[in-house]
Amino acid sequence: MSYIILRGHWCNIMVLNVHAPSEEKTDVSKDSLYEELQQVFDHFPEYNTKNLFGDFNAKVRREDIFKPTIGNDSLHQDSNANGVRIVNFAKSKNLVVKRTIFPAPKHS
């Protein structure tokens, strides 16, 4: 995980880049990442703009309970454990998972 703080006149912008463990890694390593991510988010004031980017090795499908966080469009038929983790984290921090907000391009 890495982050940078861009100091602004009215608010600061925090940009975080994360590479989460893949699905086959242990829950201990995944829990460790999300605990560190939680600490970083909690360390900085709420009024900072926070942008979270990276590879979360997540698959999130279009389940109704996820729609407020992911939108209506998803490429996946099934969610994996990493997908559930990132959606739950995003919900707890009032974030939106942007990749799944935009419809997938139609291939011909």
SSE diagram, text form:
Layout: E1 2-6, E2 13-19, H1 27-43, E3 49-55, H2 67-70, H3 81-92
Parallel strand pairs: 2-3
Antiparallel strand pairs: 1-2
Written account of the structure:
- By secondary structure, this protein is an alpha+beta fold.
- It has one domain (2-92).
- It is 31% helix and 18% strand.
- The protein has a three-stranded mixed sheet, with no helix packed on it.
- A hairpin with a 6-residue loop joins strand 1 (2-6) and strand 2.
- The mean pLDDT is 80.
Regions with little confidence, pLDDT below 50 for 5+ residues: none
Spatial order of strands in the largest sheet = 1-2-3
Helix content: 25-40%
Q: Tally the helices: what do you get?
A: 3
- Structural class, judged by helices and strands? alpha+beta
Terminal-residue CA separation: 37 Å
- Count the E strands: 3
Shape annotation: globular
Largest sheet: 3 strands, mixed
Residue share in β-strands = 15-25%
Mean pLDDT: 80
